[in-house]
Structures are given as structure tokens and as C-alpha cells.
Amino acid sequence: MVEFFKWTQESASGVYKWYTALVYLTPIAGGFLADKFLGNKWAIIIGGAMMAVGQFMLTIPDVSIFYIALGFMIVGNGFFKPNMSVQVGRLYPQNDPRRDGAYTIFYMGINVGAFLSPLVCGALRESPGLGYKWGFAAAGVGMIVGLIVYLLGLPFVKELPPDMKYEAKDSGKGSGAPASKALTEAEAEKTQSVIPSFSKLSPQVFYLLGVVLVVGAPIFGALGLAKWDNAITAIIAAFCAFFAGWILSKLTLAVRDRVLAIYAVFVFVVFFWGAFEQAGNAMNVWADQTTNRYLTEEPPVADVYPDQFVATSEQPFWELLTSAFGRLIAFNPVLTTSFQSINAAGIVFFAPVFAWLWVYLARRNLNPSIATKMAIGVFFQGIAFALMIWAAKYANGPSETDISQLPSVVLRDGDKVFFPRFTRPDRRQGL
């Protein structure tokens, strides 16, 4: 949006904001449709196909089609994301301690793609003669391959009954992991609430929250205290609050407690993903415009009139691809898109370690709760952003420039010195 369509950073961030928000909102509808009508498997297939179509549509350099493509990816993700996760959970009985490890391995598989895609698609995008459309096309091909693998693997997917309870196997040597004491759904439906007073009023609390948001959003918008899209966001949140209250009204006893526990976790999850998703927005722009990406040498002084590389029909396509994949191992400068692979690489590296760790701790009754694990993750995320605060202060500080290294076309008028604006040394796109 910033480099190809030449939009301002504010406009591009606004679109990115809505895209990511809807990516997280549509799984509510996708999960509901799968539960009531489609089933997990068909929802996953439909979602994967829609996302592939969206990626291929992005190869067409048109703003209208760009928006439609984002719509396909949003809806496709709504079908795909929640149902794939649920399907993994149903491969194991309830209370089975191996579930945590299974989700870790599942997440590791996701991040193999998250590691490779920025490298491959970014290299294609950065290569003269190829560009964005080839990066999006590669993503579409990857999605099709993934869908084919899923279809071939369907015969091996055996979902267990929802109320099947895990029974620990003990070989007599202490190798069996103890079963969790969590209740099954059937048991929860017959167990009294541990917070009966609040549980009874909880649907009304969410209804009241929804009313406050619906009434307050247009008022804040009319007073100029909130932009129109933020007011719309508040209204969407209001409907989510109504929906949350409606869900609670259909449940009783310990089952309602479980849903309230999920809602409590939502609060912390909002902060985590709100920060995490800056990787594709603020952090991405920071890496692109502020970070010194030359690892083994000093960055060159930018040219005032940079050369323009134009691909011609005389260049064989295989040479363009060779050039693109040569960029995968570039160190001077490192591709901006490569920074998107760092998080995934960490997950792939540490996932087997933690998958083993959770089972190991469970055998000794030391396995932390899911909420505790999440709290530790949010703590380390906070440390990371604290480092970025220091980096931002450093970047905004004064700097020194060797005038002798600047381009010779410096205009002097009395005591004033004018320096032409030029692009970063690795972005050879003109003034």
C-alpha cells in the first residue's frame, strides 16, 4: 500500500487495522457455521480455497480488486482458522495432557510456513523484473499445495467424541502422565457454579456493556472525540457483547463458569495480539525505514539520482528467478520482509522443546496452567516493547553527518544549506 499504491502511512495503517480486526472477528461466524451446518472439514476446505483465490487476486494491480482480494482472505480465514484449531483438539480425549504438546506441534507447523513465506515472497517482490505480483502468486501456490496436502491427509483425521475422557496409562515406572482434574462437558452441566451470584447476573452485565457502547459510539463520533471508523469499531464490539451475553444466557452452572473464564482470558489476549500485530505495521515500517540492515559492511551513501533497473523482454525468466532466490541470503542489506520470519523461526526452534517440557512437567504435577503460560508470554512481550521504547528515543535523537560524504549537489544560500531529499540506499526508486 505504501510503496506500490503510494498511499500515506496513515491511510495504509487504517486499511491494515480493519483487515487484521476482521481476520480476528470472522472466526466467530466461521465457527458457528461449522458447528451448525458445515462441519470442521468442509469449513477448512472452503476457507483454504477462498484464501488461495484472494492471494491470486492480489496479483492484479487494481485498488478495487485489492479490496475484494482482502475480503476473500478475511472470510476464508474466518472459516479456516477456528475449525483447524478445533480439529486438532478433537484428536485427543478431554483432559489428555498431550493436548498442549499437540497444539505446540500444530503451531510449529503453521510457523514453518510463516518462516518460509516472507523469505520466498519477499525475495520475489524485491527482485527487479518480478515484483509484488509474483510474491502474491507464490503465496497462492503455497495455499493450494497446503490444501492438497490436507485433502490427502483427511483419511487419517479421526475426531473423538466430545465427552470421551482421558484415562492415564501407568506402566508402573511413573511414565504415565496424570489425567487433568478438569470436568468433562457432561460433568460441568451438573456441577454448581463456584461464583453463583456473578454467574447469575453475567448475561445482564454484557447486555449493559453492549448498550453503553451502542449509545456512546455515535456521541463520541459527533463530538469529534473518536474517528468514524473507531465509532464503527465500538458498535461492532457492542454486538460482540450482546452475543457474549446471549451465549451466557443459554448456559448454566459450571458450564457458564467456563465461558466466563474464557471471557476473562480475552482481556489479556486483546493486549497480546494488539501488540503482536504491530509486526506487520509499525514494526515492519520501523525495520524498513529506520533499521540499519547492512550486517557485514557500512551502508553506502544514497545517490541523489539513483539508477533505475528496468526489466526487459530480453531477460530470461529463469534468470529473474535465480536473481530472486539469490536475495534470500542477502546480508547487505537484509530484506525488510525477512524480519517477518524471525518470530516464526523462534517458534519452530523452541516448539519441540516446549512440547516435551509440558508433558515432562505434567508427569510430575508441575505443569503450569494455560493462563500462567499466557501470562509468562505477555511478560516477555512487554520486555520486548520496552526495548523498542529505548530504540525509538535513540532514533529520535541528534545525529552527526560527514558533509564530505554527501552528494556534491548541495545548494548554498548565505548561511542556509539545503540538502536534496533522497531515498534509502537500498530503495532505488528515484527522488
Number of strands: 2
Give the overall shape: globular
Query: Radius of gyration, Cα only, in angstroms?
Result: 26 Å
Average pLDDT taken over every residue: 81
SS element count, helices? 13
Give the spatial strand order of the biggest sheet.
Answer: 1-2
Mind summarizing the main beta sheet? Answer: 2 strands, antiparallel
Low-confidence stretches: 171-177, 306-313, 408-412, 420-431
Share in helix: 55-70%
> How large a portion of the residues is in β-strands, by DSSP E?
under 5%
Head-to-tail CA distance between termini: 18 Å
Label the structural class: mainly alpha
Q: Tell me the series of helices and strands, N- to C-terminal.
A: HHHHHHHHHHHHHEE
Oligomer: single chain
Which tags fit this structure?
single chain; 431 residues; 63% helix; mainly alpha
Provide a descriptive summary of the structure in words.
The protein is an all-alpha fold. Helix content is 63%, strand content 1%. It has 13 helices and 2 strands; from the N terminus they run αααααααααααααββ. The chain has a two-stranded antiparallel sheet with strand order 1-2. Helix 1 (9-38) crosses helix 3 and helix 2 (40-57) runs antiparallel to helix 3 (63-89). Residues 171-177, 306-313, 408-412 and 420-431 have low confidence and may be disordered.
Strand-helix topology:
Layout (H helix, E strand, L loop, with lengths): L8 H30 L1 H18 L5 H27 L8 H29 L5 H22 L31 H4 L7 H27 L5 H22 L3 H24 L5 H8 L27 H10 L13 H24 L6 H26 L15 E3 L2 E3 L13
Antiparallel strand pairs: 1-2
Helix pairs in contact: 1-2, 1-3, 2-3, 2-5, 4-5, 4-11, 4-12, 7-8, 9-13
